[in-house]
C-alpha cells in the first residue's frame, strides 16, 4: 500500500504501561527490520476518566511510548464528557475521532501541536466534517488515519485522499495533511524517543 511508516498502538487504561510498551517496542523493531518500514510504538488511552488522562499519558511517555493517542469523544461509543479537553491538556500526540470537538479544544490542540484525527473508521467518521472545519479554523494539525484494528481496515493514498475530500477539505489541504503532517509527527516522535 506504499506505507513508509506506521504507528502500532494498543489500548491502555489504568494499568502500568511498561510491559505493554516493551512488547510493542520489540514487535515494532522486528517489523521495521523485517519489512523495511519505520514502525513506532505507543498507546491509545481509552475510556479513562478524564481527570486521570494526564497521569496515564505521563506514565506512558515515561515508559517509552513514541506515540500517545487519546480515544476522543466519538459519537459511536459512550466516551466520558470532558475526555477531549483532558486530552488536549495532556502530553499526547493525537486526539483520535474527537466527535463534536469544541473550538476551545481545537485551539488548545493547535497551540500544543496535538494532531486531530480525520478517520476512515465506520462510526467514528460521523463527525469528520465538523472536526476538519473546527480544526482548520483553529490552525490545528490534522491527520487522515485508518484507526485500523485489522489488515482489512488499512487504506491506500487514494482512499485517504477521498476521506479527506469527503470531510470537506480542499485538494491542497489534503495533500499537505497526507504528506507533510505525517512527516512532522514522525520526526517529532523519533526525536522525542
Overview of this protein structure:
With 193 residues, this protein is an alpha/beta fold. It has one domain: Metal-dependent hydrolases (TIM Barrel). 45% of the residues lie in helices and 18% in strands. The chain has a 6-stranded parallel beta sheet with strand order 1-2-3-4-5-6, with helices on both faces. It is globular. The two termini are 27 Å apart. The relative contact order is 0.13.
Distance between the termini: 27 Å
Integer average pLDDT: 94
Task: Give me the oligomer status.
Answer: single chain
Which secondary-structure class do the elements indicate? alpha/beta
Number of helices: 7
Give the proportion of residues in helices: 40-55%
Question: What is the strand content?
Answer: 15-25%
Throw out a few tags for this protein.
193 residues, TIM Barrel, 6 strands, alpha/beta
Amino acid at each position: 500500500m506504499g506505507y513508509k511508516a506506521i504507528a502500532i498502538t494498543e489500548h491502555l487504561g489504568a494499568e502500568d504501561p511498561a510491559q505493554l510498551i516493551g512488547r510493542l517496542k520489540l514487535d515494532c523493531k522486528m517489523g521495521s527490520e523485517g519489512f523495511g518500514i519505520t514502525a513506532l510504538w505507543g498507546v491509545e488511552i481509552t475510556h479513562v476518566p478524564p481527570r486521570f488522562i494526564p497521569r496515564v499519558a505521563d506514565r506512558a511517555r515515561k515508559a517509552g511510548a513514541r506515540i500517545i493517542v487519546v480515544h476522543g469523544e466519538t459519537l459511536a461509543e459512550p466516551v466520558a464528557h470532558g475526555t477531549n479537553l483532558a486530552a488536549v491538556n495532556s502530553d499526547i500526540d493525537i486526539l483520535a475521532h474527537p466527535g463534536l470537538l469544541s473550538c476551545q479544544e481545537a485551539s488548545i490542540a493547535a497551540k500544543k501541536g496535538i494532531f486531530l484525527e480525520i478517520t476512515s473508521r465506520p462510526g467514528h467518521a460521523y463527525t469528520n466534517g465538523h472536526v476538519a472545519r473546527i480544526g482548520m479554523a483553529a490552525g490545528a494539525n490534522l491527520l487522515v488515519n485508518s484507526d485500523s484494528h485489522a489488515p482489512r481496515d488499512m487504506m491506500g493514498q487514494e482512499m485517504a485522499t477521498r476521506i479527506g475530500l469527503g470531510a470537506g477539505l480542499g485538494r491542497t489541504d489534503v495533500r499537505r495533511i497526507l504528506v507533510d503532517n505525517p512527516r512532522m509527527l514522525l520526526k517529532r516522535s523519533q526525536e522525542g524517543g
